[in-house]
Amino acid sequence: MKKIFLFCFMLFLSALAFSQDKTIVKGTVRNAEQQPLAGVSVGVIGQNVGTTTDNEGRFTIQIPKPAGARLRFSFVGYSTLEISANDPKASNITLKDDDQNELQEVAVVAFGTQKKSSLTGSVTTISAKDLKGPTSNLTTTLAGRVPGVIAYQRTGEPGQDNANFFVRGVGTFGTGKQDPLIYIDGIESTPTDLARINPDNIDNFSVLKDAAATALYGSRGSNGVMLLTTKLGAQGVTRINARVENRLSTNTQNFKLADNISYMRLANEAITTRDFQNQGGVNPPYSPNKIDNTAAGMDPLLYPSNNWVDILTKNSTRNLAANLDVSGGNEKAVYYVSLTYDENNGLLKEAGLNNFNTNVKALSYSLLSNITINFTKSTKALISVRGTFDNNSSPVGGGSRIFTLASQSNPVAFPALYPQSFLPYAQHPLFGSALLPNSNNQLYTNPFAESVKGFQEYNRAQLVPQITINQNLDGITKGLSARAMAFTQRDADFTLVRQYSPFYYQARQVGGKTILTSLNEPTPGQTTQQIGTVPTEYLTYLPSAKNVSTVIYGEAVINYSRTFKEDHSVGGRFITTVRSTVNGNANTLQLSLPKRNLNFLGQANYAYKDKYLVDFSFGYNGSERFAPDKRYGFFPAISAAWIVTKEKFMEPLNKVITNLKLRGSYGLSGNDQIGSDADRFFYLSEVQLNNIFTSTTFGENYGYTRPGISTSRYANPNITFEKTKQYNLGLELSLFNDFNFVIEAYKKNTSGILLARTNVPTTAGLQAGTFANIGEASSKGIDFSFNYYKNFNKNYWAKIYTTFTYAASKVLFNEEPNYPDNLKHLSRVGRSAGQLYGLVAERLFTDETEVRNSPRQNFGIYGAGDIKYRDINGDGVISSLDVVPLGLPKDPEIIYGFGGSFGIKQFDFSFFFQGSTRSSFFINP
What we know:
With about 900 residues, the chain is mainly beta. Among the domains are: about 20-95, Carboxypeptidase-like, regulatory domain (Immunoglobulin-like, Sandwich); about 105-235, TonB-dependent receptor, plug domain (Ferric Hydroxamate Uptake Protein, Chain A, domain 1); about 245-480 and about 485-545, no CATH class. It is built from eleven helices and 47 strands. The protein is globular, with a radius of gyration of 34 Å. The protein starts with a helix and ends in a 9-residue tail after the last strand. The relative contact order is 0.10.
């Protein structure tokens, strides 16, 4: 009994001693307006100890070994704060909002990060939360949200809905790359890779727009650069965030077609007015009996009246998105792991005829894992793995094909489907159709059958493992550091088609009874040539394209940054990169060769008292596309900035004008992504020595044949980089810390645009076309952005932002004939780089007399009621010589956006409007 009592007493003393080794810190966390913040993460740096604040912003945390312990306070949308646990202020914490500390924010720039206040080039950053929208495709949220970015979407079909986007418009009109470079965590990526990134995983997003900002990308940066970094882990307890959203999607605008009765009457009129030989007796396709019975709604099997758009499509669809991320760690390692699922459905109706889905469906799964390991106090590594997996299905030919058929198919020739009761033992649907007039057993297209007869699948997998090692070299000299990064990227995709051939029938009355007649089922003695494709009751398999590729990349960076005597800040970096890409599906020797690039890049900057800033950058780039003496290009840029508010004469206005910064830049950037991959070795000729299409037969009896020789490319050692000179002026202004304005004006002149030579006469006897760097173009514009953020009190806050982009381009020189006065309208010089051309429609022909007395139109059959085009050059014939610039796209292009968010107590509301002068879809006449 004494032993038990003694043991309990010793256990009590041990617990008491252990509790004395801990200290308890209590406090409250508030924002700048002294509102309590709930859910703030509170952790002990270097230890797996943490908690979160309650609804009143209060926290309590036990800290073992309090000597030297430090607390970290972090919350989304606020700057992270670290403070000693012994500091009296630890019980009353105030977190500053990120939006109110914009000048102290870090922007992602080329091969690193930089404080916004020290930027001299044109760099636009946007918060990840402002990139969120009712879509799973990040590219569709750029328009209007990022000043200087022109973006438009041509289709909303899931899986095909990437937006086209350009930084400061299109400044070139040749065959070269026009869209910006995209880097995700330092990895060159595609617009599809950008589209698949979940905004929840974005840490920083920047757009580099002028030559000073893109100089380190040299021959790749003339069209701008988009940089995106993903989130990293933070020390503290494990944090789990989950989000599930259900979206409702509809067509922006649907087809508006004439009613079916008007369709038949107009079709009759069109046929009868095209009796060009005046022979008479032309039978209209639709009899009065057909029209009257259809209008009266008689038997729909004999007198069908279809609205194909309503039959095939529905008004709305639901889409699902889910994201789960886990983060945390300690002083040795931190981690951030995210899983994302996106499901986007099309607007096609499910008929229930098959055991497979014929609607458009795009599924995307992605994995992101970022693990940072601190090997020593001066050495750390980031090991990252990013995987994206797409599985898209749609009707054969794609969803857009079904929408096209819905607008073009005959609505009154046949019903979509006959009741199965006509042939109850048939193991296939009874699709309707009819024979086309004056055709050899050719059938009308049934869009319903095309929609449900099968499906096509596209599967894509991308895996990118990456390692980055950062080494602090303060031991050699203060401010020196090094970084090495390498990754490999593996892409694989394939497409397959499974479908059956439909059975088509036509209804007719025999003895007052409706029966079905097969239109394409073979009968004894018939051949496949007589009936076309033989119908089947099973799914066939058709393999399609399979693509695999591998990228290997290495990068090494030396950084130096140091301040001397408090006033003089100097910095610089030197970078070298190497990249190799191999395509496993190349069908020619040339395409099978690896694509390789080698680059040497450098930057130096100086700041005096953090108010006078100068930066010089250069890219020295090598490209395999050009001859040895043209292979390397040097692309320098210089920029400067003056922070006016740091001058003494501005001190009386510092409470009103909290930031005023003037900056300017000039530089030369390049583009080596010109021409096609098949012609990437411009300096080498390509000769086919065994061309059977140019073979020759010899001998007395013509029995000896030898293949011929042909040339598909002539060597041109003079082709080199496309080059762009860029000028940029910018002004940044902040008033009362709440109103922030940025306005920039720029001009770009691009020369050396690769064009096909059209002035080489055919008498030269060349077998292949020739190219040269002869095109020139210019562009100019203005970018503007404004944002306002304010906490009014503990219950109300608001944020408003707007952007405005103006971009105008012009072709300065184009390879074209010296047009005479009556053909000057064919010249592209002086027009927009993206100008479209077409014919001018005057009106409709009124009668056949006017048709015969008007210029001949070389566009097939036409007559009364058809479009009458204008004879621009006056030669009496409407031809390609009468093509003139159309009004689309509008030039200059203007795109603007206006959005905001506001909070009332525990509720947040947001909105966004966007508009532009560009039409996203149009048809040439």
